[in-house]
Amino acid sequence: MRNARRKARELATQALYQWLISRSGSGEIDAHMRDQPGFDKADREHFNALLHGVIREFDALDKALSGSLDRQPSELSPVEHAVLLIGAYELRHHLEIPYRVVINEAVELAKTFGGTDGYRYVNGVLDRVSAQLRPDETQSARRS
């Protein structure tokens, strides 16, 4: 399941990158991604939740991120923006995934698809966002 979820996150990152650049319809992007090599190895349910959930909640997720950013979300690289949106979505809606796992997965996505030091930025932003979206979990973990 872990590899299938990671593949779903990778594909969702690529799909959201495409959406951020083109603002094409989510159905069109979804269909395109399903034709990509390796889609059969992805957790399809998680991919659907990420792609369609992030697009549906885009404004709210950007607002949740904006307090932890040093610039406007529109000024982020599309890769970092997509990764941060996925991380914020998982922090908000997938409470079964520990916040540290959400951050680590986002860091790996940023290392794979982003710029040289983009992963550091993603790590810092999501660490702050996790304290906002999951205060009990992060406080408990930081006391340990």
TrEMBL record:
Keyword NADP: no
GO cellular component terms listed in the entry, alphabetical order: cytosol
Keywords: RNA-binding, Transcription, Transcription antitermination, Transcription regulation
Record flagged with keyword Transcription: yes
GO biological process terms on file: DNA-templated transcription termination; transcription antitermination
Coiled coil segments of this chain: none
Pfam families: NusB
Residues covered by the NusB/RsmB/TIM44 domain: 6-130
InterPro entries: NusB-like_sf (IPR035926), NusB_fam (IPR011605), NusB_RsmB_TIM44 (IPR006027)
Molecular function, one GO term: RNA binding
HAMAP family for this protein: NusB
Protein family membership: Belongs to the NusB family.
Role: Involved in transcription antitermination. Required for transcription of ribosomal RNA (rRNA) genes. Binds specifically to the boxA antiterminator sequence of the ribosomal RNA (rrn) operons.
Protein's name in the database: Transcription antitermination protein NusB
